[in-house]
Amino acid sequence: MTETITTLPEPTKAGYLKVALLLTPVFSVLLLIFAFKNLGLVSNDGYGYVRLAVLALASYTVAYAIFRMAIEKGAVLAAAGISQLQHLVLLQRRWWG
51-65, pLDDT tens digit by residue? Predict the structure, then answer.
């Protein structure tokens, strides 16, 4: 008797998720730029715009990483029925013994 094992195909991510994952940090960065310009924290010389561009790029990177991790890790934990508090307790036990 031969038993065959079939594997499920790799699940595809929804198209809207990819677009939302890219656009949400962009809007966050735009709000940051508008806020800094209105508060007068950016000078009108080239150096001020370079500082603003570096800060915007750094904030985009952090926001993108946080949103991506929340979607990839949080959805799996929520589907498994693990709440955020339970996950933190599990992490604490693993780190601190």
Answer: 888 888 888 888 888
What single-letter DSSP state applies at residue 10? P
Question: Using the 8-state DSSP alphabet, how is residue 97 labeled?
Answer: -
The answer, as to whether pTM is greater than 0.70, is no
CA distance 78 to 24: 22
Half-sphere exposure of 43 (CA within 13 A, CB side): 6
CA dist 67 and 20 (Å) reads 10
Q: Where are the domains of the chain?
A: 15-96
Q: How are the residues of the chain apportioned to helix, strand and coil, as percentages rounded to the nearest 5?
A: 75, 0, 25
Q: Which of 79, 28, 81 is nearest to 56 (CA)?
A: 28
